[in-house]
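**Sequence, structure tokens**
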Amino acid sequence: MKMNRKNIAIALIAAVASLSAVAGNAAENGNNYPEIASQGQALTRAAVLADLAQARANGLIPHGDADYPAYVASGPGKTRADVKSELAQARAQGLLAENDVDYPIVASQGQSVSRADVKQDLARARAAGQLNEFQGS
């Protein structure tokens, strides 16, 4: 019976010591919520309601699942004319897909090579022994 009490006492001391170590570690890592919350003046109900109204006016509070997450503009918006100009430029550069077959778009990397040029390069490579049986026909 004495042995059980001694083991329980040791276990309790170890548990208390480990809990205090965990709490100290949490405070060192910035997880000190009660300390942060108690700093400064407590906000009044009116101040909280004013902050809420301001956040709603700025569009920071979602009104439902469809609005979540709330979109916050990160800079000045573009005009319709700016967007149309960018679209026309992308079309001119061939950066827009016409259908699913054209997707993904790969921007042209300079001048294209004709079929005849490719065939000549292939014939030269074959003649020079630069192709093995697994590198094309």
